[in-house]
Each structure stands twice: as C-alpha cells, then as structure tokens.
TrEMBL record:
Keywords: Hydrolase, Signal
Phylogenetic lineage: Bacteria, Bacillati, Actinomycetota, Actinomycetes, Pseudonocardiales
Protein name, UniProt field: Alpha/beta fold hydrolase
Keyword 4Fe-4S listed: no
Signal peptide: 1-27
Gene Ontology MF terms in the entry: hydrolase activity
C-alpha cells in the first residue's frame, strides 16, 4: 500500500472513530448530509445552447436545458474532524428518472469564491454545463476551503480531495431525490489539472468500495499533476514547466502543504524578501488567482531561497511527506479503460505526468493510454478534451 493511499485510509479510519462515539445526533451528523441547496442558474434549452456556444467548449452536445444549484454538505477535514463543504450540481432539464452521473473535478483555484458554485464567470461552470446539457447529472465539488466551506484549501492533498468528492456525491444523491430524480450509481469521473489528479484518486476510492451505493463507471482525467516527485518538480528545473507556472503552483503548494506537513517554521526559510512577509496572506483564499499571478515574480529564483530550491531537488522530511500526499494517484488497477488526455504544448503540467501515470497504471495491469489532443497549452487541452470526453461517456466508455 503506498503512502498516499495509507493517508486516505487514515482519514476514513478517523471518520469511523468519530461516528462510533456516542453523542447527540445533532453533534455528529452523517458525512454527505445535505445542509442546503441554493439555486444558481436556470437555463432553457436555447439559453444553454447560447451560453455554451460562447464558451470554449462549444454547444455541439447540447440536448437539454440546465438547472444548477449550490449544495452545502457535511464532510471531514484532513484530520478526520467534521466540517462542511460546497459544490455545484447541474441537472439536465428533463431526461430519464435515473440520470447518468458525472463527477467533474476542477483545476487549481486559490480565490475562495473562484469556483463554479459561486462565480458565474468561472470556466468550470460551462465545463459542468457541457455534461449536464448532454443529459448527465453533473456533480462538481469545490473541495475543502473553497466556495462556502470554512478554513484553508489543502491544495493537491489526495485524501481530502477524495473525502470531499465522495461526500459531495452523497449529498447530490439526496438532492436528486428531492427533484424526483435518481443518480446512476456508476459514476463517470473526469477532471482537469488538479482535477485530473483528483479524478484519479476519486476513481480509486470508488473502485475500493468507499460507498457501496456508488461504483466507478468511467474515468477520463485531463492534464493532471499525477507525479509531483517524478515529473512536476523536475520540470521546474529542466524547463518543461514554465517559470511563471512554477512560481504560481509551487508557492501555492508549499504554503498549503506546510499547514499539514512541516516544510518550514518561518516563511523566510523558503521565500525571499519581500515575499516572505506576505506570501501566506496571499494564499489564504482572499486574493484572486490573477492578482496573485501579477504579484509574484517571474521566475523561481526570484521567489525561493537557494536553500529551498536545493531541497526541492532532493526532498526529504516534511517536504517529501507533502509530495507523497499529492502523489500515488496512478498506483492502482481501474476496472475501466483510462484515456489520459494531455497536450504536448502544456508547460503548466507537462505531458510527462501522463506518461508516468500510464506507466504506473499498466504496471498494475490496467488498460491505460496517453490520448494526445495535439499541440495544446494547458487550458487548450481542457477545451479540446472535454467535448471528446462527452463523446467517450456517450459511447459507454
């Protein structure tokens, strides 16, 4: 059993201990319990077609109008303690009683409100609508600490991505019943960037039987950072990750992971002046992603200390633990074929991540292949892949 999977099991075990304690029901609500459902948007068939035609995903798959809601629900944090989270559910207008189900996992977001359940201009909302308009009940968790959830977001932490996503599926099932609908238990899982990695770990949890009322029906991750130690960190130094992307993702990951793993005691051990005094505030969820990108310097050597750059080349201690908490997404055997959508011009999450994931999946006996969408950059990969994934799911793959 790999270290990331042990971490995930530990979270589930902590939750089991909590549920075994005899306390009033109001003090120990069930994981996945639906707390609220707030209408976000109601679109007719024509309005859905117009909105998606103006999006990067296009309107070729529009067969229904869309009704979207923000759900708030019970889940657990990284220590197994009760907390809440939010996410978007987008349902097709009409369709059968039992709706085919898609879990869509979003990419990197820093701003707390910069998620599809809150921000109407967020690109993940039309991505979710693309599946809903094609007839799928689409469940898009915000993860911990984003949307309306409390606290900080544990960025790229496999265990909490999994627990928040599984509990969102549970809440969505309850909500669908209120709408006189049911969710197909065979969940088609997809996601982009951070969501590609999250899709893999959610798929693993469903495959392991984390909730007997759901199963893994299909898996289609896009441009995920599946291999922090073997592809993403080396890419910072060999040029396959662009300097700007390295600065943004690595600083976010370092600050977020330090809350659970001891990477530094003082930010000045990792970040140069003047950034050391402001970096933790910058990544507390109150600042939008585009503002952060303009605030940070252009290249890693201007942001990180020489000592930290040396540690990144040879991680150990808390830094190595943090990398393990993000890695290991591909060390299992999915029961379905796994196309790993990737673009060859992606300098945020280089294609080596997908190549390594394919290698690891095949070593477990899985049917996996890197599906090259062409010479696309990071976001261009998603814009190209998602309509193709609708086709894949329509074919029952």
């Amino acid at each position: 059993m790999t270290k990331p999977f042990r971490s995930f099991v530990a979270v589930l075990a902590a939750a089991a201990v909590l549920s075994a304690v005899t306390v009033p029901a109001s003090a120990a609500p069930a994981r996945g319990a639906l707390l609220s459902a707030t209408p976000v948007e109601t679109l007719s068939l024509d309005a859905t077609r117009a909105q998606l035609a103006a999006s990067p995903f296009g309107a070729d798959h529009v067969r229904h109008g869309v009704n979207a809601y923000r759900l708030e629900y019970r889940t657990i944090d990284g220590r197994g303690r009760p907390t809440t989270a939010s996410g978007l559910v987008a349902l097709p207008d009409g369709g059968p009683h039992v709706l085919p189900t898609v879990a869509y996992l979003h990419g990197t977001r820093v701003g707390k409100r910069a998620v599809a359940s809150v921000d109407a201009h967020n690109a993940d909302r039309p991505a979710a609508y693309t599946f809903a308009a094609a007839g799928y009940a689409t469940v898009a968790p915000d993860y911990l600490g984003l949307g309306t959830g409390p606290g900080f977001h544990p960025y790229l932490d496999s265990a909490t991505e999994t627990s928040a996503s599984v509990d969102m599926l549970r809440a969505a099932r309850s909500f669908a019943r209120r709408q006189a609908k049911a969710l197909d238990p065979k969940v088609r899982v997809t996601g982009f960037s951070q969501g590609g990695q999250a899709a893999m770990v959610l798929g693993r949890a469903l495959r392991s039987g984390v909730d007997g009322r759901f199963a893994l029906g299909a898996l289609a991750p896009v441009s995920g950072p599946y291999d922090v130690l073997g592809a993403e960190l080396p890419g910072v130094f060999d040029g396959s990750v662009s300097p700007g992307a390295a600065v943004f993702y690595l600083s976010y990951w370092t600050v977020a992971m330090n809350r659970a793993h001891h990477i530094y005691s003082n930010p000045a051990e990792v970040f140069k002046a003047p950034y050391a005094s402001t970096i933790e505030k910058l990544f507390d969820g109150s600042t939008d992603d585009d503002v952060i990108a303009k605030t940070l310097p252009a290249k890693p050597s201007d942001l990180f200390t020489d000592a930290y750059l040396s540690r990144l080349r040879h991680p150990s201690g808390g830094l190595l633990e943090a990398a393990h908490a993000s890695d290991g997404a591909c060390d299992w055997r999915p029961p379905v074929p796994v196309p790993l959508y990737a673009g060859t011009a992606d300098t945020d999450v280089p294609v080596a991540n997908s190549v390594h994931c394919q290698r690891d999946l095949r070593a477990e006996g899985a049917r996996a292949r890197v599906l090259n969408v062409g010479h696309k950059d990071h976001f261009g990969t998603a814009f190209t892949a998602i309509p193709r994934i609708v086709d894949q799911f329509d074919r029952g793959q």
